[in-house]
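ARCHIVE CARD
Drawer: 12
Card no.: 0347
Subject: one protein chain, sequence and derived structure
Cross-reference: see card 0346
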Amino acid sequence: DGGKGPSGATVPTTIVNLAKNIVGSGVLSLAAGVAAFSGSPLALFPSIALLSVICAMSAYTFTLIARVGASVGATSYAETWGKVFGKETQLLPAFVIVFKTYVGALSYAIILGDSAAGMAAQLGAPPLLRLPNVWIGLLTTFVLTPLCLMRDLSSLAFGSVVGTIGTLYTAAFMSLRALDKSYQIGGVFHSAIGESLRPRFTPASGLNLSIFVLLSMLSTTFMAHYNAPKFFNELSPAEGGA
């Protein structure tokens, strides 16, 4: 086990944390990736096929990284890299992980800031609290930064449950609005959003190179590999000493 005992995270806790690590705004935006290359409902079939293939590849490589890390006694992705390829290049994956995490945190801060500003405006908050940048600064300082500094992922289980429920809630409403056609021309909510943000339901024009928009989204949809060794090492030992 690399000489460092796990912190005692249970399998359900790890599953919830991993699901929240993967499922987020990126998953909810996949519909836009499908719409980028076709407006036909038939586009769902090649999209789901691509999604399934990349999901399988991501699951395999995720577990592979965890197993390799355990076999060399590493507790992080960078440490695993260093023990396999040499410590001379260990800073390379560390830099990539920091950059990827920074970009992810920044995107979430922007999403949260825009959402908070919109809700503040609806509640009649002062003008200052209606500015997205103000909320981005507040949320980054008092929420996102402390969360990023936490060392034990198992303590995030409750927040992960809430976040996953929120994602499922959003997905359910997206499905409902797709079925009742509220956002189509003539729908009750079609005029409630800005013209530039209104969805477009265009006739099918066949597949085109814009499918790579979806592929680029799928390349990070299941991205949690940088946490694979950490998730593995935090698992509680199996009963019976296995």
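Annotation on reverse: Confidence is low (pLDDT under 50) at residues 1-6. DSSP finds ten helices and no strands in the chain.
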